[in-house]
Design brief:
homodimer, 138 residues, three-stranded antiparallel β-sheet, 5 helices, DNA-binding
DNA sequence: TTGCGTGCAAAGGTTTTGCATGGCA
DNA sequence: TGCCATGCAAAACCTTTGCACGCAA
């Protein structure tokens, strides 16, 4: 039994969500969100950022990623109007650049692994490592 | 170029590696490794465990994984004597099982990413996270 | 008015760093 | 002997918790 807890709409929560929507192309750490909001003159305590993110992840509008490098979690807004869009990450091991890859081919990949290998890939946790174009040409 | 640093062979390093080999079916945190070694009467300082793991990951005999909880990193020995560089690894985030996946489809994936996204995937460093069949049925 | 939300300070847990000492080669 | 390795203590980080006060409904 869920104990549906009431949720108030507050300035801080809206701002955390808006920040993620504004940056939906990237993923942000809790710290970065706090920093961005501060820059915009809309300071929100870090504790509150964490608690707001917790709620947002719970209700599915935001995804939590575990990024390998830092020990900090990253968050990204998920537009659920688009259908379950796959989003893999490529990370260059040379320069550290993170590439956000949205590509239909990758949905096929997920389907293939699911059907042929009985394994459900979780792309929120998966990062493909390699070398980006710029670094390959060095 | 690289400044090849000499590496000494020490009791502690051997024991950390052996511990991982003994448990190659599982993944272990730095803390668990320290604990196991202590139980075996071969105490190794936690700092040293971390530093040994760092080296082992660097030279590719051990892989660093992110675990479900996300708090601490997990490590697992990878047997490179087999041609592991030819295939991808799937890791179940529930049970920790490591699956070696050999499949032509995945070479295509590599080709696709290389051609369409100008990125060379290094599958010795890449792990696809997800849930295996057994765990999905729980 | 009720009770969730906020944010400071402090706690908790993991990993890294400084430094003097130890040990491989 | 020259350096790297070790391990204690402490620092550095990220995240969570306790608590008094603020604020949405």
């Amino acid at each position: 039994m869920e104990k549906e807890q009431k949720t108030y709409k507050t300035r801080q929560r809206s701002q955390v969500l808006n920040c993620l929507i504004d940056n939906k192309a990237k993923h942000l750490t809790a710290d970065e969100i706090a920093f961005i909001l501060k820059e915009q003159g809309a300071e929100v305590g870090k504790t509150t950022v964490y608690r707001a993110l917790e709620k947002l992840v719970e209700d599915g509008s935001v995804r939590k990623y575990l990024c390998e490098e830092g020990k900090s979690a990253c968050f990204q807004y998920v537009d659920n109007s688009e259908e379950c869009h796959l989003h893999f990450h490529l990370k260059c091991v040379k320069c550290g650049k993170l590439i956000h890859l949205e590509c239909d081919y990758l949905s096929d990949l997920e389907k293939h692994i699911s059907e042929h290998h009985k394994f459900t890939v979780d792309n929120t946790k998966t990062v493909l490592y390699g070398v980006c174009e710029a670094c390959a040409n060095v």
